[in-house]
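Memo to structure team: turn this sequence into structure tokens by end of day. - J.P.
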Amino acid sequence: MSSNSKLSKNIAQTPKNIFEEIFLQSTVSTQILDKEGWCVRINKKLSEIFGVLPKDIEGKKYNIFQDAEIKKHGIDKLLKKVYTEKSIEQWEVFFNIDNASKSQNIPIATPVTKWFSNTAYPVLNEKGELENVIIQHQDITLQKENSLRLKESEESLQKIFNSSPVGLLLSNTENEEIIMVNRAVEQLIGLPSNKIVGKSVAYFLADKADQKKYVASIKQFGKVRNMEVALKKANNQLITCYASGDVVEMNGESLFLTGIVNISELKQTQYALQQSEAKFKNLIEDLQVGLLVMDEHANILMFNKAACNLLGYSSEQLLGKSAYDTDWKIIRDDGTFMPGNEFPVPIVIETLQPVHNCTMGMYRPLYHDWVWLLVDAIPIFDNSHNLQQIICTFSDITEKKQLEKQIQNQQIKEQQLITEAIIQSQEEQREEMGRELHDNINQLLAGAKIYLDMAIKNTSMSHNLMYKSMDILDKAIQEIRKISKMLVAPSLEEDSLQLLVKDVVNTLNNNRSVKFKFVFDNFIEEGLSKNIKLVLYRIIQEQMNNILKHSKATEAVIELNSENGYVYLTIKDNGQGFDTSAKPKGIGLRNITNRLLLNNGKMFIDSSPGNGCKLYISILIENEDTQL
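Reply from structure team:
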């Protein structure tokens, strides 16, 4: 079938230019099909809504816009139905433009889904035969979406109404006749809804005075607020309830919505609450924690005995006293004066936020002394979130503060000891270096000078004397290098700790009576910081020096291990040992202790006279960067 089927003669009788203008500019999305379902023309509105161009759809089969009606009848049957029924009006369809266009390989501007209300009209020729079908599409997407949202809203309201724990009744405003109740009302009264609907709310009120008051409130004010009523159940049992209600508009009709809450248990507990208040006051009085109840202006309304004692005021002085009074003597945690706007209660009034764990020192007038308090201030609000009261509690932490001061002083003393040890170590190093320079290097240089003097005076022996002088100068240079190694921190970024310790061990083994052995089979150096490696290196140096000076040992073993986030250093010798309970005379072990104290390390010494010495070191290296 040709895609350029002629329009019916009925349409052709209209001047073509007028028809074209009306058709193309129409605000109603329109398309024309021939009698076999091929698209003949579309107007601009359809092109705009569906996002297709006329050249891409004209001459295509109608099934690009397949809908439920077409799927049900088929295109041929649909055309026949239009011809038979003369028109098909307002059938709703849901179009997926993207899926439809892909089936015909037709490009679209935007893939959308829309609801349309369609109307189809037949166009007949002179013989009364179907020539064309005009289909108009009215976009009703917004209406459908609003309709669906309204339906969902109504269903949601119905669910809320039925599932509300508060008893809800809808009644007519004219005769108070109940129209609808929820499940909570059925449970309260003990009747199914069909036994309740049709009666008035007042019918279920046991007291006639309540009935009259309820009806009068509705008629006069159009509302009921927290009316305490006796509700009559189906079994004639009475329960105390609160009733509240308002006029509401539903589907253009004025109805009265009443909410009923069972407060029988609440009423029963009121008496128990009143009885417990006296017990509560006694309990407050027995508390060892100070307690103040203050109004929204920071005036003291109530307090207990502990508050009088901790604050150092008599009950007469404390009652009515304000947190804003200027005679409070308060200091901060650091000992400086605390102004009134920094007191916990004024801060609560200003910010409406609780204040916790405020440390403050207070002068007590009754005892003429100072006490440290840990204070909490909590705001209490009414139903409208207006500040009603402030509950202020405080406890005596004077002993804790004194203990913290002692700990602080102890830490200062320990730091002083560390500083003294460092200074003393530096002095000993200087003294040692002086002895080395005087007793060794100075003697070597003096010997070299003598040989040089002799060479100058005795030219026949100058050659041999010069060589001897050179040998002595080489020894002096080696001694200076040894001293430099002891004083200057090694380059742990370029050289590994293992190589440096090996070098020290080899140097000492060449010139000393003690033979050192270095074991590091289970040691992983990778990941250790330069600081930790330097600490280990200096401890090894320090203990080797202790062994050489004091142990009288012939053998010593240095062992490095790493495991489970720790590095372990063990140094053992077979020397004379010592009594670990005696205070050490030197500062070598103290230097080691101080280095470990600053680097998350621990030390243990196992020694006794005649049994050598074992030094055990452990340093935490896990999460080292965070700790440092």
